[in-house]
Amino acid sequence: xxxxxxxxxxxxxxxxxRDLVDLLSIALRRxxxxxxxxSSLEEARRRLGADRYGLCLxxxxxxxxxxxxxxxxxxxxxxxxxxxxxxxxxxVDAAVRALKLGAFDFVTKPVDLEVLRRLVNAALQxxxxxxxRLTRLVGHAPCTEALRQTLVRVSRTQAPVHIQGExxxxxxxxxxxxxxTGSRREGPFVPVNCGxxxxxxxxxxxxxxxxxxxxxxxxxxxxxxxxxEGGTLFLDEVAxxxxxTQVKLLRVLQDKTVRPLxxxxxxxxxxxxxxxxxxxxxxxxxAGRFREDLYYRLVVIEVNVPPLRExxxxxxxxxxxxxxxxxxxxxxxxxxEALSLLAEYPFPGNVRELENILERASALxxxxxIEAHHVVLRPRPTSPLxxxxxxxxxxxxxxxxxxxxxxxxxxEMLKLCRGNQAEAARRLGLSARQLRYRVKKLGLDSVPEE
Length: 450
Prior knowledge:
Elements: E1 10-14, H1 18-30, E2 34-38, H2 41-50, E3 55-59, E4 61-62, E5 65-66, H3 67-77, E6 83-88, H4 92-101, E7 105-109, H5 113-124, H6 142-154, E8 161-164, H7 171-180, E9 189-193, H8 202-207, H9 224-227, E10 232-236, H10 243-255, E11 257-258, E12 267-268, E13 272-277, H11 281-286, H12 292-298, E14 301-304, H13 315-327, E15 333-334, H14 336-343, H15 350-364, E16 369-370, H16 398-416, H17 421-428, H18 432-441
Parallel strand pairs: 1-2, 1-3, 3-6, 6-7, 8-13, 8-14, 9-10, 10-13, 15-16
Antiparallel strand pairs: 4-5, 11-12
């Protein structure tokens, strides 16, 4: 016996412009949906209370109130219903406020029907429970559980997400989980390390270029933003973007279009932006190194990834997961003494450092168990000698003294990393560009390898 045909999904359009409601209704019917209209907040609440809707499209300016009130009301009373806001181009700031309140996405007027189609398709998808896809987030410490619940909430929206956390905490893993638990999981996930791209190539890499746009541009280049079409662009170490590039990125976020270098036409893009940095982005704004308007576009939802020292109870589970990945079908185990040693270590390099320690210990272990003597930890840093303890024969001014300390630390780290500047920058919490500048400034271009 054939199953009865499924009823088309209902879409509620909340707008007091009758012509716009009619236009959107025609477009939605052609998509096989059942559109219904409401001209006021009161009527919208009544309809939402009486029927189940797959999506609500709400104007931000209504005759009897603010559309933001409706967004907040839906999040409280019908959180399972995604709501997207309709806004005039000049009201993008209001749309960003709606995203912070929990709106799924926004679309500007006049409505581009192809943009509307993509938004509706994304909103009406029924992804599996995000908790099913969060198993890669290992641990059950209170701060880990709080992070997991935050990611569940983030999965319901298309809003830009900013991930804050120290180096090595797993910000890219969190970004991938945001992508995989949302409606864009079938689209591409494109990671970009903003600090690793030379400054003169950043715009070409992100926005693309036309042939002949500059010397060496022998062919058209799509750019990473368009490569993420239908998916997610992850801007790691976004604080390293040059100010000129930040201006152009702001335009992409506001207009949802991109224009390649040397091009004259803008192309619509459907991309979700996730950014991350190990530095405080608000402090970068205060210092004038990051644009405030871009900050408010990127940091719509902020996710904080806790350092490993705040989730020490997760270390046993993390060790098991890492050793399973390293060991294949028969992974090594770790002794209680070795675990106790790790539990007392401050982990300045966080989970990434734990991975390195266990990988080294696995190589040193001669049996099936990692013992305490296999675990090699970095010595804890000691405070530099006070100025009064410096040799009398070498009096230094404060700037020179600090420069000497920096030179010694950089030289030590470069030797430890066998001249690998990228690894040294990661361990020191610097971008690759910052390290290159300091190496050149302090005359460390030719540090010998160990």
